[in-house]
Amino acid sequence: MLPDSIHRLLRIPYVLKTRCYGHGKITIVFLHGIASYKEIWQPIMQPLEHEYRCVTIDLLGHGHSSKPTNIHYDVRAHIRSIRWTLFWRGIWRPKIIVGYSMGGIIGVHWTRLHPRWIEKLVLVSMPIYHHAAESKDIRLENLIDKGYLTFYKVLRNAPRDLIIRSARALVSHMPTLNMQARLDEQNWYPVVSSLKHTIEEQTTTHDIKSLPNDLPIEVLYGSLDQVVLANNLKKAFIERPRTRLTRVNSSHEIRPKMYQAIVRAIIREPEPAEQLE
Known about the structure:
Helix content is 40%, strand content 14%. It has helices at 4-10, 45-48, 75-88, 102-113, 140-157, 160-172, 175-178, 188-200, 204-209, 230-237, 256-267; strands at residues 18-21, 26-31, 52-57, 96-100, 120-124, 217-222, 243-248. By secondary structure, the protein is α/β, with parallel strands linked by helices. It has a seven-stranded mixed sheet, with helices on both faces. The longest helix is centred in the middle third of the chain and has 18 residues, at 140-157. The chain has eleven helices and seven strands.
């Protein structure tokens, strides 16, 4: 592992921690959400590894990957490290990207940059917020967006120790969340920087419009999701004929029903007709 000073001086991306499952001809890259880590995908590796080559990644600043404190964790920084990591692992042009929450935002932008590489997107619980929420428009939908963005801003500007203690207390009472999210002194900066530069300042709506029209996209979201705005999802994908939206009885955390829906979304053939509901 190179010291941070070398990475900064030579602008060399970080090599992230990965794990591969299976030896199939089709490579799937799994991208987790904010404050999470690659092990959240473990429950669905067994049904997939016989037909696919599954690559799970600890995103920059997350899990066991490097956590530099001298960068902005924007979507391009995340993608540079992902591509560099796949290059060093000998993985060329993955066919499918599965992105959960923030990982979905990264996956969409990655596909926009390399539209010929990706043959399918599976987007799980992806939060889309419109920048129009920053205007003076007082329509309800814009006020809701603005409320979420204001909450995130307050959250990342709150005292670090207070938020960490609160997060620990929360996950201790929520077993599913406890297995999928971590927030401590080591990943505090990467998490709050990713929140600001990848989620709050996202360009997802624009990125979606730039994707190839024939790209199959599976969009999954929970009916009880406290983070995802379903109307924003529907509007973002409304004009895409090969997109299928699936609502699952689940919250933002990935639970058994969502895991099952992800597997189905990966293996099923895309429909040629418009499937958006």
